[in-house]
Amino acid sequence: MKKLLSLMLALLMPTLLLSGCGGSASPKDSGTVPTVAKVQKQKITDLAGREVELAVPVQKVVAIGPGALRLVTYAEGASMVVGIEDIEKKASPGRSYMLAYPELKKLPSIGQGGPDTAPNEESLVGVNPDVIFVSTLVDKAKADQLQAKTGIPVIVLSYGSVTSGTTSFDENLYRSLSMIGTIIGKETRTQEVVAYLKQCEKDLAERTKDVPTEEKANVYVGAVSSKGVRGIEYTQANYPPLVFIGAKNVVDETGKSGSLLIDKEKLISWDPDILFLDAGGYALVTEDVKNNPAFYQSLSAVKNGQVYSQIPYNNYTTNIETAFADSYYAGKIIFPQQFQDIDPIKKSDEIYQFLLGKPLYAEMVRDYGGFKKLELGK
């Protein structure tokens, strides 16, 4: 009997030890996979200056407002998303993260979405996320209100000032990425993303820093999308892809920033050496060429065959990877010597691959024609 009891105790010991340490049955027996990361409470100070306590790493997330979901995908958190806004489910040419993760469109709706809508509290609660990431839609008070009504931690993110076209990316964007990494257990990944973005900016700036201003070509970017497609008179001061490479954007002399509507006669007086056209509005420009051929033929860039495309990068705020791709292409055109080692197509796919896990340049060709010289009036 003593031998039998000893044998039974030996057989039971592993189970007793597991139970005492908070263990459970094996994944094969229970059908579940144990959580690798230890969950612990942590206080996070978000971009609205709010201190939010939540258990990290989380398993289920939602992201609402312009750009919030994009940042989650950069952090390799797409598999944790449990619902998306209706606006994300619609056709979204050029919205890179939705091209990289089309399966997200099959997820439940968490509200209408859009830059001017209020969060749908009932829909958010319905998908039961562990955290709500939100960008642009709320201020500090509204974030507190959303958190109180849903009972779900709300973390406010920011892209910084680049969305208004006033500067390059800033620390608010990098802080947002780092916060997401901490919350979803992807700290290493978001550190790599931040380092990569900073390196891209540095590389672009370093290439042209020694080019004297008087030797730089005058450049104009037309047909820049602004809440829809626009014609050649729509442009942008401090256009980020040109800012990154220190190019001479003729519009910057206005002293203004962001999207601008100029008088077309002003473009004649500027008479830029190089003309870039946002591919989103290119069809409007070609139609205008038919109606006003003399105007276009008066421009030196048109006469000299110096008209090139840019892929639209603003779609539910800034597609950062496309903005960088545009900058490398613009650099290749404006500063050929400084960018002689760059193949814009390969560079674009490198950027898409790193940030979104897929080479998406072919998708941009399908939607917008890709990078190429444009022929106006021919």
From TrEMBL:
InterPro entries: ABC_Transporter_SBP (IPR050902), ABC_transptr_periplasmic_BD (IPR002491). The keyword Hydrolase does not apply. Coiled coil: none annotated. Keywords: Signal. Residues 60-338 form the Fe/B12 periplasmic-binding domain. Residues 1-19 form the signal peptide. Belongs to the bacterial solute-binding protein 8 family. PANTHER family: MOLYBDATE-BINDING PROTEIN MOLA (PTHR30535:SF34), VITAMIN B12-BINDING PROTEIN (PTHR30535). This is Iron ABC transporter substrate-binding protein.
